[in-house]
Amino acid sequence: MNTMLIVYVLIFIAALVGLSITINIYKQKHEKKPLVCPFGADCHSVVTSDFSSFLGVGLEIYGAMYYGLVILTYVAFMLFPVLITPWSIFFVTGATIGAFLFSLYLTFVQAFLIKSWCSWCLMSAGVSTAIFIFTMIEISLLDFSIIPVLEFLHKPILWLHLLGFALGVGGATITDVLFFKFLNDFKISVEESKVMSILSQIIWVGLLFAVISGIGLYLPKAEILNETPKFLLKTLVVLVIIVNGAFLNLYVSPKLVQISWKTTALPIRSIMRFRRVAFALGGISFISWYTAFLLGFVKNVPYTFTALLGMYIGVLLIAVVGSQVTERAFCKSASTARL
Q: Which of 162, 214, 310, 335 shows the smallest number of beta carbons within 10 Å?
């Protein structure tokens, strides 16, 4: 048995394990039976939480679809090696990278938002990671390159990249408006909360599209882009968006909803601190999304990376200071209205 076949068998077995996990979760959820964790964690509360679905579809369904796709693909590869082409490898690799990044997002949600662990979910994330690693090994063993495919699909990948940023910029803009509305009057309705949750998920979809397509645009021109100040800054800005968005959408936003619905007994100082942090993060999100979006349209930037970084940091500082001034103005306006 050659090395490539071993890798295919390992991917196939991993996908089978992943599929069995997602089917088990689906059956337990829809039969309304408590999901028992094999390692004593609180699986049931995790798989029935507000974060157990994405855009209205259960996460276990996404998982089953992905693992089913991997199983069918690698069965076909093992039975019909002629199907192993740069095109097929390109599509399966894209799906694998997307699934791996999504599993990281879900693990983050368990750790920092739900603050509870599901052993089955962690095993699924581990399986997704294993498939990602085996896929990278597969690519390294192949005799051909997917670079020609990426070059041929440059325009569709570019459109996906622009779509990702359009979703992110639009979602971030509307979310900021809703944030400021809430932070002005301390009220948020059930409908507004649902809209903010959907917008948050749309932003993450946009970010996922932007990252995956960004990799597709980067690889054919890696040597050139690594020396391009615009690209380096854009990469840094995307990292800022990821970290800032994770904290804002997965931690601060739910706390603000709890404050609005009075389901948390936070002292007034903590509430005010959340207001200030939310305003600051909202400003950073707004500036960062638009910076990355504009950098994608500008072809030639006659500045060094250090100069661009200085400008970006300067604009961020202005946005943060401006957000705090706005927050204080809202506070004074609210105090005056109560008098």
A: 335
The verdict on 93 and 217 lying in the same domain is: no
Its sign, for the CA torsion 147, 132, 78, 7, is positive
What's the rounded Cα separation, in Å, for the pair 187 and 78?
58
Tokens in use for 263? 């389901």
Distance CA 19, CA 72 (A): 12
The per-residue pLDDT for range 172-212, each reduced to its tens digit, is 888 777 766 665 655 666 666 677 778 878 888 888 888 88
The reply to whether 332 and 302 lie within a common domain is yes
Q: What are phi and psi of 267, to 5 degrees?
A: -65, 160
Q: Which residues have CB under 8 Å from 72's CB, separation 6+?
A: none
> For residue 196, what are the contacts with CB-CB under 8 A and spacing of at least 6?
175, 178, 179, 188, 253, 257
pLDDT digits (tens, 9 = 90+) for 39-95: 666 777 777 777 778 877 888 899 999 999 999 999 999 999 999 988 899 999 989
Q: Which domain holds residue 295?
A: 153-338
Listed in sequence order, the residues at least 6 apart from 274 whose beta carbon sits closer than 8 Å to its beta carbon are 252, 255, 256, 259, 266
Task: From 282, 275, 284, select the one nearest 334 (Cα to Cα).
Answer: 275
From first CA to last CA, the distance across the chain in angstroms is 81
Q: How far apart are CA 283 and CA 90, in angstroms?
A: 37
The domain boundary residue, chosen from 104, 121, 144? 144
